[in-house]
Design brief:
Blueprint: E1 3-8, H1 16-29, E2 33-37, H2 40-46, E3 49-52, H3 79-91, E4 96-101, H4 103-113, E5 118-123, H5 139-160, E6 163-168, H6 175-184, E7 188-190, H7 198-210, E8 216-221, H8 228-237, H9 239-242, E9 246-250, H10 262-280, E10 285-291, E11 294-299, H11 312-321
Parallel strand pairs: 1-2, 1-4, 4-5, 5-10, 6-8, 6-9, 7-8
Antiparallel strand pairs: 2-3, 10-11
Helix pairs in contact: 1-10, 2-3, 5-6, 6-11
Bound molecules: 6-O-phosphono-beta-D-fructofuranose.
The site of 6-O-phosphono-beta-D-fructofuranose has 12 residues, from loops.
């Protein structure tokens, strides 16, 4: 009988629980034993394992966050930390590991797979910055949360003829900002992949007023050179010349909380099931993601350290629509 472990790592993403549930129940269906690891790689290093049965993952598909807890573990980034993790797995005869997480977590997964453990990653991050998956677990929920905020901000912005700046998460990836801007009808979007100067932002907002709008909205990715802080300080400094009032809202971790949408639950369930299928097929180092509508395993060596490019057609579309 095979023994596997599952962990969640990095920033939590809505839908991680649905993935844990699918991994556990599909593994049990194979006749395997499953262990949940608490607090990501930190739990792997310190041996914080708990055997799971079907009931251990009952009633969680609708919950945000992760029942396993998550962490950013510095110790695992060292050779000693990874050796300690390997020892903990070997002591329990665990030969397979499922890592539910984003970019940094999959880098750790790759390192472990090089040490003789079969590791399969599940693409899970609100940043959508992983190649190997067109869309990652949590993005849809985070996007919907950002949109709810934007719809509300537009109402108050219109009442006061104000400009609003909304900063969204995403690390160095502008996907969340771009999609929020398109779906939220923003006038300007600022993404890390393309430098946009404060003066260009001011021009975009000014043009919206000149076209007769009662509000103007700019969505900014946190990883952009001119993020919310930089733009607000520029607008303060040049307020007389800019000629309008700018208010700023940083959505921050609000985007990561909340119940997963139907889309994220189904995506997470399919990718979780795909991870077990990949292990059953003998994959030793792969990321399971959704590519062109199909659950696909991509070698981790082709995923780690690779930057996902922003879609230029979507950027163009955002510019066409901001009239
Ligand atoms: O990677 C997910 C993410 O939410 C990023 O968008 C954000 O930059 C980061 O995590 C925040 O990390 P932390 O929760 O450790 O502050």
């Amino acid at each position: 009988m095979k023994r596997i472990a599952v962990l969640t790592s990095g920033g939590d993403a809505p839908g991680m629980n649905a993935a844990i549930r699918a991994v556990t129940r599909c593994a049990l269906e194979q006749g395997w034993e499953v262990f949940g690891v608490q607090r990501g790689y930190a739990g792997l290093v310190s041996g914080n394992f708990q055997e799971f049965n079907a009931r251990s993952v009952g009633g969680i598909i609708q919950q945000g966050g992760t029942i396993l807890g998550s962490a950013r573990c510095l110790e695992f980034q060292t050779e000693e930390g990874r050796m300690a993790a390997l020892r903990e797995l070997r002591q329990r005869d665990i030969t397979g590991l499922v890592v539910i997480g984003g970019n940094g977590s999959q880098t750790g997964a790759f390192a472990l797979s090089q040490m003789g453990v079969s590791v399969v990653g599940v693409a899970s991050t609100i940043d959508n910055d992983l190649v190997g998956s067109d869309i990652t677990i949590g993005v849809d929920t985070a996007l919907n949360i950002a949109l709810e905020a934007i719809d509300r901000l537009k109402i108050t912005a219109s009442s006061h003829m104000r400009a609003f700046l909304v900063e969204v998460m995403g690390r160095k990836c502008g996907y969340l900002a771009l999609m929020t801007a398109i779906a939220g009808g923003a006038e300007v979007v600022v993404v890390p992949e393309i430098e946009t100067t404060p003066e260009q932002v001011a021009q975009g907002l000014r043009a919206a007023y000149e076209r007769g709008k009662a509000h103007a909205l700019v969505v900014v990715a946190e990883g952009a050179k001119y993020n919310a802080e930089a733009l607000v300080s520029y607008f303060k400094e040049h307020s007389a010349r800019v000629g309008f009032d700018l208010r700023s809202t940083t959505l921050g971790h609000v985007q990561r909380g909340g119940a997963p949408t139907a889309y994220d639950r189904i995506l997470a369930t399919r990718l979780g099931a795909g991870a077990i299928a990949a292990l059953a097929n003998g994959e030793e180092s792969a990321l399971v993601g959704m590519l062109k509508g199909a659950v696909t395993a991509t070698p981790l060596s082709e995923v780690v350290g690779v930057q996902k490019p922003i879609d230029p057609e979507l950027l163009l579309l955002a510019r066409v629509l901001d009239k």
